[in-house]
């Protein structure tokens, strides 16, 4: 696993073979971050990485200037691996929460500029996650939710949906909140 760009560009971390998590491919990660740049100024943005897995997205967010980055991961070994990666980078800008994402969402009072959610594709409640996050008001006005999912999911009817991107077998749906707290469904001007 490597960090693609930013202040930690090129840093590599070896993922233990025993891990069940599937990190987002470098190809998909590079492309979706190029899209995110069109929506969010990452420098100083407060970011949330749900279902953090190996920490690949959290590391990329930190490298690109997001601070703080909150990483939520339930698996003990994965959370420990994320902590080790952050220690190797000597960063204090990561807040690691080892716990259930759904409990975190239910109790969350914080708003974020950018939320990245990458649940296991086979999760039975996967289809409920975007609406759950958006209805909870976890996005700041103008904030962006990036939701990674399999090719069989379609979120275009969820309020706040702005676009879908596919890179190989990796799919992303993007959602946005507006300044009035209502959701918006338009892409940025190109």
TrEMBL record:
Top EC category: transferase
Keyword RNA-binding set for record: no
GO terms for MF: 16S rRNA (guanine(966)-N(2))-methyltransferase activity; nucleic acid binding
Keyword annotations: Methyltransferase, Transferase
Transferase as UniProt keyword: yes
Stored InterPro entries: DNA_methylase_N6_adenine_CS, RNA_MeTrfase_RsmD, SAM-dependent_MTases_sf
Any matching Pfam family: Cons_hypoth95
Superkingdom per UniProt: Bacteria
Enzyme Commission code: 2.1.1.171
CDD domains per UniProt: AdoMet_MTases
NCBIfam families referenced in this protein's UniProt entry, alphabetically: 16S rRNA (guanine(966)-N(2))-methyltransferase RsmD
Official protein name in the record: 16S rRNA (Guanine(966)-N(2))-methyltransferase RsmD
Encoding gene, per UniProt annotation: rsmD
